[in-house]
Amino acid sequence: MRFLRFFIIPMLLTSVSCQHENATFQKLKEVEALAYNYEYTSAWEMLKTIDNKDIDSEELNAFYNLLKAEMLYRCEGVKGNDSLINTCINYYQRSGDKEKLAASLYMRAAICYTDNNEQVLNDFKNAENYAKKCGNIKLRKRIYAGLTVFYGDNDEFPLSLQYARKEYDCAKIIDSQKFIAYALLNLSVSYDRTGQKDSAAWCILECEKLANLLEPYYQAYMYYGLGSAYANSDTEKAEECLKKSIELEPLPQAYTLLSDIYIKSDRAQMAKKMWNEVMQMPWDEFKVGVLDAKLEYDYQNNDFEEYHNTQKAKSEAMERYYENRLRNKSDELGRKYDMELFRHQVRSRIKIAAISVILIIVVLALLHRIRVRRIENRRIASELRYEKSKSMLMMLEERIAVLEKDQQNQSKELATLKVKAGKLKTGIMQNLQHGHDLYNKLNDCESIVNWNDFDVLCLLDFVSTINQEFSFALENDYDDLNSSQKLFLVVSNLMKKKEHEVCQIFGLEKQSLRNKRNRIEKKRAVAA
To answer: What is the pTM assigned to this prediction?
Structure first.
């Protein structure tokens, strides 16, 4: 069995590979769980520990790209670069993984988010439809939150409120104070924009209660959100919340919003201080927004020299921003090339292993075919010998009848023929007696596992003597039944044995019994 090496070795290699892949997949699941719980920093650090060499399948590659795209967006502020996420969407559309496809579409909408963007809305809605078909409540909450913000930014406040309520319902089902706090924040903004001030005030109060229960990182975002909610109605409260947010975590958007409040209240020096803080941060996207605000301020104050310097700084920030995007795309193309090269190598190895397995299967099939053919030949030979004895008896009896009629041909040949005929008749009677004994054993539900072809033929011959009509039906109502199938019909149809008795007699399982009955039924002759 030396050839089995070619079959066993690839199987062992595949098993080891699967175990390695499962370990990487579980690590990616942990990263996903952290991201779903807003623990983006921890998720990003864990994702960085995964070696590219461990991403050795298309499924892992898609999952890794999905998480990497989100972490770049959440932690590095990379927006608009959808090359990573598009590979995920293409894969999950082919694989049919609705949950991951919904997550990928949601992530593309978040990364490419702009106001009045039809593609973003389509991605959000498609993500919602796919998410409804799976049971991930946290994913549905994420999507509802995205749609709440999208409709709010596009002044469709009733729809924004509708999805804010859905987000809040999901947060209550998850039963997480952190999720409830964020949902309350979105709900308060939606109520405020639809003129439901009392409901908005209640949500803000409940949100403030829960804010202190969150970790500092999340409290910063919470207070930033509260500051945004108060920005148009209570600037003092908004300023207080934004300062708390900055104390907890230096969020660039908090500095930016606070600078807007300072500008509106004629505190230009404080606003410039906020702008300078943002300019010290690594996020070029926020720098561009700050520089836009500063350009407007310089223009309104006729400070054209400073306006020129600010314009130059904005151009540099935008150039860096787009350079980073191009660099990320270049890195992704290199990684795609490495992945394609690895896939080519894997496909070559799989092809060799598949050819080996196919050859083994062909050899085993040929051996099985030879064995089946030998058994069939022995069965046919046994039937021919049995039928030959009966045919010879008929010929001898006809010959005896002719000789007996011809009185002049009474001779030694007649006596010899009678002796031979007597022996054959005795043999036939013994066969019938043997068939009778076997018939009695079948009545007692004894197993036929040890019967040979001769036993089966004796039983069938005996049945033809006790029920010629049934034997005639076996020959004429079916096409080409073998002796084993005739015996099955004798037991099940003539002797009326129950299913468990038939299984006991033939040593069959119930499923095998049904299969055998179906094969026999297919041989039933079709009426002309």
So the answer is: 0.47
